[in-house]
């Protein structure tokens, strides 16, 4: 590129109409001049300097992505991750913010993904390593999306659960049980105090535990638990399946008694979720398979908060995400980025409930609460409820007892003296903490 | 895990019914004992050793994934990619083949992806770095899928193009032109000898170039080109959009004159593609946005051939993929892996046409042909046709002239002496080669 070519891919924020652009934060490592590399990145992800042969034209003013900010520093040690590529030159680590004109593709999730996570971003000359760190949408773009139907407030209303976290549990054994014994586990966990008993994200509409039987058994168990406890409960059924079955499985599961639905967002596709959102009458909860495949590394791929924002945009009321602690291999700052992406303002799009999960039990609740910094989160043990020595009822009770202690400022060990379930949890799981 | 726990996640291939399992090849780096790490990997991706409290049960014989083969070697230098994780212990590089019982989830793409690219794979204890290298399906699993309707043979039949590569071209400028001048470029490229003029993968159903107008203009131009050349042509329209618009856009584009359709596979979601395949009456062509985000690195993510296989399974007749040369940052062996994944036997699923693309022009055709080793591929220049100094008609002609030279064993430079378009291509693009 000539200096003039490069300059055409740079702009000042004040010179652009912010409603016409989404903003993208990238970090990348390039070989060669960072300023030229960022111009290529804009060119590749929008319109290159194409002109028809024999025609004097320039599509950049309207159609090009443009660099707004650029910072770089040399990396004398070279690329931070080994890559097979032929680019030569001194390596720089770069931060760039780019304005991308959304009129190029419109308010369509697949076309948005193609533009900001596509060939143009990951095959830009001189940039073998790049990570999309964040994305911001103007209100004009958000206006075309419905977002969550219920959101945090709607979910709390349904559960009549205010001023505290929402207590989920993943029914275990996750795979292998037929509907009736599986439902019994959910029933016991509701009696113990869970708000939401859920299918594992791996549990599909399979012949050894068909969704119709499972939803019927859990739906009936839920009604019994609601009668016995006097409070609303949710059975969260996993309807992850081919997109052309989602509406049918929604109707089936809801008719049988499921009152929220789990969908593995990326395996189904965010567009399929947006389609389901138009049809759905119950809260939609996202699970996170496939996301780590492109979000785990700090130097390559897509930051998981981008996917959190997109899941909220697509209409999820709740986003389950890898949580705190070494088990989920996600740095604390990144978990918090994802939590904020659920809750912070996003035009007219409602907040959704963040559920940072992974190897939780009564003893990890306070740490999650302190880190999140508010009660607007979901807590989702598996073993901590269903592997509790007193069974799922005792396991759920241990979680609620832990919350009682936390909210009253009583140390867990002290509260456990008078609460057998919490005591048993500390005995069984405490050594791992 | 105890030695007994670990042993329950190992099996001999001969002791399993191969029709009940898909096979997965992984490479990973682990901290600690590789044999235990591989057992965890099986446990996490299928059923852990869950048992109900007070019940003596073991779901592993039927529901567990099982290690078939394991090789490991120490990595005294530690992990090959920096990772934030707390696992400690000597690092090993491991290759493992795992049999995963597909009855756990059934012949559903989202549930397959959840199992083999999901939480269980990317959050397995002690394994911060892992790459799914390959996947193999038994006929019992493939039987539930239709695969491509046309495949390589069907596409050749439609084009009456036998014994040679299929010549595509990406109409450029890719973004910004209204329908009429855009169609004129396609028309010229067909007259010059292209089989298939295509929309860029970034070109959506946008207000400045609506699909209905574009398909009508290109459809009309295609019929004129067919009349004038006497051979069939294809206008490949990009209908990438929200999944609930795919069938409608298929019908619209085909009614107006498009006779093949481009879909960005991962942004739309493979399940959305499988849905469209049931409806479609024309060949479906995949483009590759988003895939590099998880396939670029040799030490983490998912090998792109896995996605090639899944795109074929979902029903694509053609898979466009990053091709040869440093521009596309993909090692040659990996491009060839993807080419083979299109063409090699896959039960009753038809072969699909591989199109390894990236910065191609007349001068790169022979190299691609030699590397692929057969004529069963597509060749997809952008600039090499539409940036040719004599325009797209000359650009397309230069490609066909190059093929004539190759198939007759004549050096390009010699053939160019009597063929102005090839000569101009060598002059314009040759210096970059």
UniProtKB/TrEMBL annotation, chains A, B:
Family of the protein in this entry: Belongs to the RuBisCO large chain family.
InterPro entries the UniProt entry points to: RuBisCO, RuBisCO_lsu_C, RuBisCO_lsu_C_sf, RuBisCO_lsu_fd_N, RuBisCO_lsu_N_sf
All copies of domain Ribulose bisphosphate carboxylase large subunit ferrodoxin-like N-terminal, residue ranges: 33-141
Matching SUPFAM superfamilies: RuBisCo, C-terminal domain, RuBisCO, large subunit, small (N-terminal) domain
Record GO biological process: carbon fixation
GO molecular function per UniProt: magnesium ion binding; ribulose-bisphosphate carboxylase activity
Gene3D superfamilies per UniProt: Ribulose bisphosphate carboxylase, large subunit, C-terminal domain (3.20.20.110), RuBisCO large subunit, N-terminal domain (3.30.70.150)
One Pfam family from the record: RuBisCO_large
Organism: Rhodoblastus sphagnicola
Domain Ribulose bisphosphate carboxylase large subunit C-terminal: 151-429
Protein name: Ribulose 1,5-bisphosphate carboxylase
């Amino acid at each position: 590129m000539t200096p003039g070519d490069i300059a055409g891919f740079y702009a000042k924020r004040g010179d652009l109409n912010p409603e016409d652009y989404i903003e993208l934060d990238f970090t990348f490592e390039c070989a060669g001049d960072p300023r030229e590399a960022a111009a290529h990145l804009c060119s590749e992800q929008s319109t290159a300097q194409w002109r028809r042969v024999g025609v004097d034209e320039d599509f950049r003013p309207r159609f090009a992505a443009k660099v707004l900010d650029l910072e770089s520093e040399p990396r004398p040690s070279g690329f931070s991750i080994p890559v097979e590529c032929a680019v030569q030159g001194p390596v720089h680590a770069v931060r760039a913010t780019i304005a991308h004109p959304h009129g190029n593709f419109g308010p369509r999730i697949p076309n948005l993904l193609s533009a900001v996570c596509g060939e143009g971003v990951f095959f830009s000359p001189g940039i073998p390593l790049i990570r999309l760190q964040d994305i911001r949408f103007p209100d004009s773009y958000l206006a075309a999306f419905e977002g969550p139907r219920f959101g945090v407030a709607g979910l709390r209303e349904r559960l009549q659960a205010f001023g505290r976290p929402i207590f989920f549990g993943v029914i275990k054994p996750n795979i292998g049980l037929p509907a009736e014994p599986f439902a019994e586990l959910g029933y016991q966990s509701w009696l113990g105090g869970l708000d939401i008993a859920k299918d594992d994200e791996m549990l599909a509409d399979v012949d050894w535990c068909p969704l119709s039987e499972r939803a019927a058994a859990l739906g009936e168990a839920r009604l019994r638990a609601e009668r016995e406890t006097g409070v609303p409960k949710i059975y969260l059924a996993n309807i992850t399946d081919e997109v052309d079955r989602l509406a049918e499985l929604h109707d089936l599961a809801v008719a049988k008694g499921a009152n929220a639905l789990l969908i593995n967002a990326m395996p189904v596709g965010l567009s399929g979720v947006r389609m389901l959102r138009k049809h759905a009458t119950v809260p939609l909860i996202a699970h996170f398979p496939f996301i780590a495949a492109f979000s785990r590394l700090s130097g390559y791929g897509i930051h998981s908060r981008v996917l959190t924002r997109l899941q909220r945009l697509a209409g999820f009321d709740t986003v389950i995400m890898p949580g705190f602690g070494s088990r989920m291999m996600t740095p604390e700052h990144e978990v918090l980025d994802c939590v904020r992406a659920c809750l912070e303002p996003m035009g007219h799009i409602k907040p959704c409930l963040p559920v940072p999960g992974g190897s939780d039990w009564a003893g990890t609740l306070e740490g999650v609460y302190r880190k999140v910094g508010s009660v607007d989160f979901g807590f989702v043990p598996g073993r901590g409820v269903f592997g509790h020595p007193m069974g799922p009822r005792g396991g759920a009770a241990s979680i609620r007892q832990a919350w009682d202690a936390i909210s009253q400022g009583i140390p867990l060990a002290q509260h456990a003296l008078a609460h057998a379930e919490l005591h048993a949890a500390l005995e069984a799981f405490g050594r791992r903490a």
